[in-house]
Amino acid sequence: MPLVRRYLARMQAPLSPDEQARLRRLDAGAVWHPFTQMQTYLDDDPAPPLIVGAEGNWLIAMDGSRYLDANCGYWCLALGARPHAVEAAVAAQLQRFSHSTLLGLGHQPAAELAGKLTALAGEPLNHAFFADSGSEAVEAALKLAYQYHVHRGEPQRHRFLALGEAYHGDTLGAVSVGGVELFHATFKPLLFPVERVPAPYCYRCPWSRHPDTCALECAQTIEQIIAERAPELAALVIEPFILGPGGVIPQPKDYLRRAVVAARAHGVPVIFDEVAVGMGRLGRLFAFEELDLKPDLVCLAKGLTAGVLPLSAVLAGESFYRTFLGAFGERKTFFHGHTFTGSALGCAAALAALDILAAPDFLPHIRRETIPAFWRMLDGLRERPMVGEVRGMGLMAGLELVADRATRRAFPWERRTGHRVVVAARKRGVNLRTIGDLVLAVPPLTISASEIELLGRVLGESLEEAAAQ
Ligand SMILES: Cc1ncc(COP(=O)(O)O)c(C=O)c1O
């Protein structure tokens, strides 16, 4: 057997019991997992999988178990867990150089990537500012928006308009514009004030309306706030079409358009946080393509490198960019950037990922075949026990579990109903994630028809098992 195949075969064999025990001790003793209650993590029985390999859309755990990754590395492994072309591009870049700062210098992968992204995004989004994560892209966009007003002589415009249930990341600026009580409440004393409108959450409508008969009170509210508060607003920041981590909450048809039109009419810049919904997740490379309006700033991350390396970008329009130009002494520089901003390896990964994501047949196939098959599968789950609502768009779905489907009463939080579904799915070879009692299905764009079928079967059985407990 050639050496590489022998090595791969060895990599995918289960680790020895001693080695598994050693890794488990290290994981339990030394790793502080994010967004994870460590006490229950350590008590979990069976213990959560510890991943040592991957193949296609599957994760391979140290005991040799395989899991279809229906969370795709938290929504970023757009091309599955082993996108070989992207990995090869990173390996090739490593042969050239791995890092050179973008602060005052240029480098080839960043120049190529900025050129490619702006060409794909189209005018006027003709500048790319790089960062390392989705949170940092949002952070940069917030500061860009504010500084834009400063340069225009309107420093009083420092309030952001954001939605309830919004999630924009975990750095403090991103948390300030975020609106998920569970994640953000603890940090309130550290945050800057934000103008907040309730999320247009149809299943639990804050205006107590029904989607079939409502007058889009949600859109009226955001229009009204924009009209009233425009002179103070730095920007409207919004996850377009679907609020992701805050509950996979789709916006009613026309909501987004009306919000963007209102912002435009009152001179309020619009920031689209496309960290989750961009890069093909909704079937288009950029979510804004679903609208015939472009935002002023667009934040991209997650699938930008197909999840192979951390990299994010803010795309900015010409009018934005121009306000930052001036003589050195005018101090219009954007004093912001991280050591690894525009990492050469990350840019090489993104270039290779975009070669695939933006290839002429790739996303049309996803829209024609994968997304309809995914929703046919999800439609079959609507009447399963505990399923209050199945919602989402493209290849992003959430199943809201409820104790009573008629009254939509939630389960007690501490019952961990969603987690029971995750554990049941694990036993059946599917990796899921929940946010509370919202079970997420966010697979790689490369999920096959048979994998969709498997996901549907496992979700159905896991719901039954968790309901019977
Ligand atoms: C809409 C949205 N914005 C921002 C972020 C933050 O991105 P990151 O986790 O890369 O910092 C996320 C992450 O899930 C997200 O879904």
* Tally of DSSP β-strands: 17
**CATH structural fold name of the largest domain:** Aspartate Aminotransferase, domain 2
* β-sheet strand percentage: 15-25%
Give the helix level as a range of percent: 25-40%
- Strand arrangement in the largest pleated sheet: 4-12-11-10-7-5-6
| Unreliable stretches | 1-10
Radius of gyration: 23 Å
Q: Count up the domains.
A: 3
Mean pLDDT: 95
Shape: globular
Q: Tell me about the biggest sheet?
A: 7 strands, mixed
CATH architecture of the largest domain, please? 3-Layer(aba) Sandwich
Give the N-to-C terminal Cα separation.
48 Å
Bound molecules: pyridoxal-5'-phosphate
Under CATH at level 1, the class of the largest domain stands as: Alpha Beta
CATH superfamily of the largest domain: Type I PLP-dependent aspartate aminotransferase-like (Major domain)
